[in-house]
Every structure is written in C-alpha cells, then in structure tokens.
Write a structure and sequence with these properties.
seven-stranded parallel sheet; globular; two-stranded antiparallel ribbon; 5 helices; Rossmann fold; alpha/beta
Length: 218
Amino acid sequence: MRKSKILTLVAAGAVTIGGLAVAPLTFAAEAPANACPDVEVLGARGTTERPGFGVLLGPLADRITGDLPQTVRATAVDYPASFAYTASVRQGVRDLTAKVQRTSAACPETRFVLMGYSQGADVVGDAIAGGLDTGNVASVLLFGDPTFTAGEPFNVTNGNRSGVFPRGRGRLAEVAGRTRSFCNRNDRFCQGGTSLAAHLDYAKNIGDATAFTAGRLQ
C-alpha cells in the first residue's frame, strides 16, 4: 500500500467553548514541491473550531489517508469559521476554490475529496453551487450541514426535516452521485432541531464516509 503521509493533523481531543467542540491547534506538513498526490483531501472545519481540520474532519482525514492505496495530501481550508457567518463562509469558498484551482493547474491528474462539517459543509456546498470545477472531484462528504435539504438522493439521515438555511433541491445535482450528506435526527443545525448533542455526534460516520470515498476512487 502506497501512502504519502502528507497529512496536516490528527486531532487529539477537544475542549468546549460556547457549547461547541473545538479542536486544538494543528499544523500542516509541507508537501514536497515536486510531488503531485493521487488524491487531495480538502476539509472545512465547523464554527469556532481552531485552524486545521477540527475534531471530526481530522480523524476522518487521517482514516482516509491510512486506508486508501493512493498517495494522499490533506489540506485544511483556511477561513475564520466564525459567527460572522456570511462573511466567514464567503472567505471559505474563496480559499477552497483557490486551492482546487492551484492543485489542478499543477497536478491535473490529482482527484479531490471535499469534506465539511457544520459551517464548513456550507462552505463546500456554496463552492460547488457557485461554479467550482468538479471534474476531478471524487467525493463530497458533508456532516451536520446547515443547508441540508430534505429529500436529496445523497442524504444519509434518520430525520425528515431541512436545515436552518436549506439550500433547495437540485443545487448540488452536479455532484449528487459523488456526495454523502450525514445529518442526525433533531440536529440543531441540519434538522432545525433542538439537540446540540446530535450535531456533535458524527464520529460514528467516519467509517461509512471513508468506504464511500474509497469506492469512488477505485
């Protein structure tokens, strides 16, 4: 199994600030200048999580890197992930788009895994809906997405409601077959529910998300 451990982090534990799980600071390893990975994982963390991947996407990025036979580079989206929500999401979209464009220009054969948690899921969805070139996107993994829309074919949920900012049916149709959007029943944000605990309970989906991505990359 070929593995390029160009992984930016393994999140070790979390603290709680304002009721939200927050990851410790993490630091990216620089990829060799002359190396193009087979796969680049781009992850956008949730609101108030510190720079890096956060407590959910960190372990997911590590699992994907460890399980895939391809070489993998994992890169965190650089954005505020703050309560200044609209401006924060826009900055995330710009950074995610720029990173995809930069890698695509240098490494046209590299395929992408886009993943986002909470506000980060909104970032990923907005980038795609806004015209991101998804030709080399292998999979899209969303967790607790505030723009979750009930009835989409890629939804993985035991709830039947839409999120607090529903995106609307068909806005991600371009990547529907490559997407999984995980949303727990009564999640405060992706179901407009009352449970913060449900919003923090997505580590259980790491295995399914990894298997889906591996299948998409075969």
